[in-house]
Write a structure and sequence with these properties.
Layout: H1 2-13, E1 18-22, H2 24-28, H3 50-53, H4 56-61, H5 63-74, H6 83-93, E2 97-102, H7 108-112, E3 117-119, E4 122-129, E5 135-136, H8 138-142, E6 156-160, H9 169-181, E7 184-188, E8 209-213, E9 225-228, H10 231-236
Parallel strand pairs: 1-2, 1-7, 2-3, 7-8, 8-9
Antiparallel strand pairs: 4-5, 4-6
Length: about 240
């Protein structure tokens, strides 16, 4: 662990073209549970698995149950950025980090001060009426009941990518551009199991691919450096 951390520190010190690609593990250290983990936090009090509830089909067929889950489990508005979020914002401010590409929808990167954040799966902080496109923030959504309705009568839909929905092409294109031009690509807090987002790693053409994760991933063999452990703890020492 110590040797890997020293190598990572050297890589960071010697570059000014880092791109970070992160997943749920970046936010779990801020107290936001990962519904894919074995703790089962997201499965309590629900008759359906999270992957079913968070699908476009379920949203259309059972909107009341969808929004009950959304308010209960997705709107973690008291969560604060952790050491990993803060370090990435610091690197960006120093000109070392060019972009944060995230699968998370919690807005913690921006709260920590990051400016160039590409949200592959959208954000709970953006909610729009499906009829008139009026904007509503997360705080408003948290205090609604049943299916949230706009002043025009339309349903307010979270600007998050549900299962069965495609990623935003513009965001995806920008992510590919940043990754393909990066000198250093750091991937943290993700099992690299969710596609198409996980496939972005294939666009990296450099020789400093760093994986930081608590557990092994299917892509470890491709990495130039694997650092196993808490991403917040590792980043806070850099």
């Amino acid at each position: 662990m110590e040797e890997a951390w020293e190598k990572l520190k050297k890589i960071i010190d010697e570059t000014d073209n880092i791109v970070f690609f992160g997943g749920a593990g970046v936010s779990t250290e801020s107290g936001i549970p990962d519904f894919r983990s074995v703790d089962g936090l997201y499965n309590q009090n629900y008759d359906y698995p999270p992957e079913t509830i968070l699908s476009h089909t379920f949203y259309r067929r059972m909107p009341e149950e969808f929004f009950r889950f959304y308010r209960d489990k997705m709107l973690c508005l008291d969560a604060k950025p952790n050491a990993a979020h803060r370090k990435l914002a610091e690197w960006e401010a120093k000109g070392k980090l060019k972009a944060v590409i995230t699968q998370n929808i919690d807005g913690l990167h921006q709260l920590a001060g990051s400016k160039n954040v590409l949200e592959l799966h959208g954000s709970v902080h953006r909610n729009y009426c499906e009829r008139c496109h009026k904007f509503y923030d997360a705080e408003y959504m948290l205090h609604t009941e049943g299916v949230p309705k706009c002043s025009c009568g339309g349903t307010i839909k979270p600007d998050v990518v549900l299962y069965e929905e495609g990623l935003d092409n513009r965001t995806l294109t920008r992510a590919v551009e940043y990754i393909s031009r990066a000198d250093v690509l750091i991937i943290g807090g993700t099992s690299l199991a969710v596609y198409p987002a996980a496939g972005l790693i294939d666009y990296y053409e450099g020789n400093k691919l760093v994986l930081v994760n608590k557990t092994p991933t299917s892509r470890d063999a491709q990495a130039d450096l694997v650092v196993q452990g808490s991403i917040g703890e590792i980043f806070s020492r850099l």
